[in-house]
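ok trying again, last paste got cut off:
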Amino acid sequence: MRVIAGIYKGRKLVTVPDNSVRPATDRVKGAIFNVLQSRVNWTQARVLDLYAGSGSVGIEALSRGAQHCIFVEKSRNALTFLKKNIETIGAGSDANVVYGDVDAFIESTRTRYAVVFADPPYALEALKVIPNTIFAKRIVAEDGYLIIEHPARYQFEQNGLWEVAVEKTYGNTAVSFFQYKQSAP
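nice, full thing came through this time. structure:
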């Protein structure tokens, strides 16, 4: 696993050696950032990486110029690798690591983010409510995006707050890009 573009391009990242963490593949990461390339001004972007694991997606955002990234992870094992990766790239002042539960973080934060990444465990029962919760709490900036990596077979129930702007599928993995529902003219 490596950083695929930007100032940290080519730096190797480490992850938990067992299968308890499922890092985004280079192919999926590349697809995410290709979609966001013309939609996000990275130099102005505050990024939130939920269920961060090794932090590879948030680190990719920092590499591409994101202003700041907060990584939220509750696994102590994954946290060790996440901190090592941030140290490896030297992004300490641009990154904050929060050890704890994602739901508790969402409840407590008052910051709005240009980009919110969420790569929850595929078996997470609360997967279906992640978009509703995040948009109801107004964590995503008005012109921002929530990106969720999820099983390809999974479909989110539509809601009046958000819409799926883009969805990409790669084998058994899908990536959905959510944004605030646009008003009809």
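cool. The two ends are 44 Å apart (CA to CA). The mean pLDDT is 90.
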